[in-house]
Amino acid sequence: MIKEEYLKETALCDFIIHPEIKVKALALAYGFPEQKDIFRHIFAFVKELPYGLDNWNTPASQTLLQGWGMCSGKTNLLVAMLRSMRIPTRYRLYQIMGDVPLWNWATQDNNKVRLVAAGEPHDHVDCEVYLDKRWRICDPSRDTALEKGMQVVGLPLRRNPALDKGGKTNYLILASIDQWAQERQEKRKFRGNRAEVFSYVNRRLNEIRALGGQSGEGKISNPKHQ
User: Fold this and answer.
1) How far apart are CA 175 and CA 77, in angstroms?
2) Residue 216 — pLDDT band, cuts 50, 70, 90?
């Protein structure tokens, strides 16, 4: 029995108070009666939104409006769109090892914004969707243009989950990340120079997309950070 909470709106998964989320989901689902096809088209849309550094507590509606997001914001949007279509979806939180090659490339020309903790474990958010009577893992965070650019410059695509002392990865499954995201936002590493760091790194990520043959579309523009 699937819990009803995996279909509910929350503050960050705000598909009822912001009906444009469901409108977009319906447009993507048009002509596809099967849930698996609806999922496939919605997932493709969210995945191809550019990945960039953003706030942890960015709601689904804001991610849709700005047209890009971090792992948490893009996952919020995916969860919201799927729940608006009555497809049960839940969040999956865990830690991954810092993406050292990517972040070193992104900050190599500016020591002021170098991510000094890039090699340490850090939080990551993706989700699980219930299809064909089982939960399926899906991660919409990185867009294809970014991945192609990473390959061009020789950056590895593989993400390595952090392991505990027993050699296992600890996953936290939640129906809502509202409280977690707010607490994580308050613990953010970059404070005084957050806007400078994020704007610079996001410009560098756009440069990686360009190296991968990305056209003028699908870029992060005018990022705003609290």
Assistant:
1) 14
2) very low
Q: Name the DSSP class of 34.
A: S
Q: Where do the domains of the chain lie?
A: 4-211
How many C-alpha atoms does 101 have within 13 Å on its Cβ side?
A: 11
Q: Which CATH architecture has domain 4-211?
A: Roll (3.10)
Angle, alpha carbons 113-59-41 (nearest 5°): 100
Residue 1: how many other CB atoms lie within 10 Å = 3
Whole-angstrom distance, CA of residue 169 vs CA of residue 177: 19
Question: pTM for the complete prediction?
Answer: 0.92
Q: What is the pLDDT of residues 27-66, one digit of tens each?
A: 999 999 999 999 999 999 999 999 999 999 999 999 999 9
What's the CA gap between 213 and 173, in Å, rounded?
37
Closest by CA to 43, choosing from 136, 134, 139, 135, is 139
191: its two tokens: 């404070």
H helices within the chain, ranges in order? Answer: 20-29, 35-47, 60-66, 71-84, 100-107, 144-152, 178-186, 194-211
Pair of tokens at residue 112: 């002021």
